Here is the input.
Amino acid sequence: MKRLSDRAPAVIVKSDLAALARQHLLIADIAERGLVPLVLVGPVTDLARLTGYVANSAHPLSRIAAVRQVPDAMIDSVLSSVQDWIANFDVRGVICAGEVFVDAAGFLCEALNLPGPGAWAARVCRDKVMQRIVLRNCGPSWRAFAPYERNTAAAEVFPSVVKPAGRMFSSGVIRVTDDAELRAALSAYGPDETILVEELVTGPEFSVEALVHRGELIWSGVTAKITNEDSGPYFTEIGHTCPAKLPPEQTNALIAANAAVLRTLRFGSGITHAEYRLQNGRPVLMEVAARLPGDAIMMLWHLATGQLLEPAMVDLALGVRPAYPAPNRRAVQRFVHHQPGRLRDVRYPGQTVSWIVDDGYWPTVTPSDPQAAARCVSVMVGLPRGAELGPLNESNGRSASVIVDLPWHADPGSDVLDYVNQVELDYVDQVELAIDGGD
Here is the structure.
């Protein structure tokens, strides 16, 4: 083993290609501090594509110093894969940028005596059933059914929400209105999946993003959400507004509820993303994650406050107490409605459209002055050209979204629609499909 003084200082980032493409500024911040970015990815990452980006000096991910892929996110797999990094580098921090690694990242931080959420908090955040037990006074009424209990699964009241305990991206989450729909929903899950049957909580949905330093809550932001639940039985997110335009008492109630959750978890250091429903003015916890938020929420807070969140995440991983400002604008991400079909192109007048799957990185944005007029900041497509578009039953099926930057007093609902309506989706028509043989 090398002596400590001979080892380069490094930060281990646990992620996947989709999150790395979104959070390339996180890698840049680590490198600009003179730290070596070491990246661990899971089995869903196309390793050849990622290493190609790393080898391309013009690509934002080229600052990654080394990449390892593990077949699963089990703690022993992760520890086996990073053991020589621990020996050969002076590991100063560990950052979890992907949901599947939350548990392993929490354990590794604790094992290396580095700032992190804490192994117990990370474990609870990664397991929906554990959350419901530990945070039983914060969420809806519920019951979990292990695989061997599947035939006995029942709802106390209808409508209910059925969800698999171990999935992500709203996958498998569905509203059921009677026992027949419940039985049909259960038949669609894998034989090894534990299922939660929960009370349907009505009311607007929000997320609370928080920065925590050694147990001290130092910043909170409330994000308003829109889902497609009004048009069907699913709960796919189709819009975010940072910060939510709410009366102060409702914002304060959500922040206070989230602070209580973090205290119960004995959360140590890091960023958290928790989702709530505001039912008759009372926050009801849907779930809490010990990781950065998804979609463009990090970008939206950058536009709303004028300051990136990524440096604050690196600070927390290194044990430094960051400062983060209050917002002075609002920023919105809105996904565009699509028709079933095969996507050929996306256009927006006067705007370059970012195909983030093809590019391997998200566009960088520049905040506006507080009094500046509203503008379209970016149009992004999360699927490749030729992708088959269908019903939105999970987040991975969404196509294009528009990012809009607004003055503080603008209406984040109506003032965004003009921008959304300018996004044009071009589909391959049936004649072309016939010529292509349906491929």
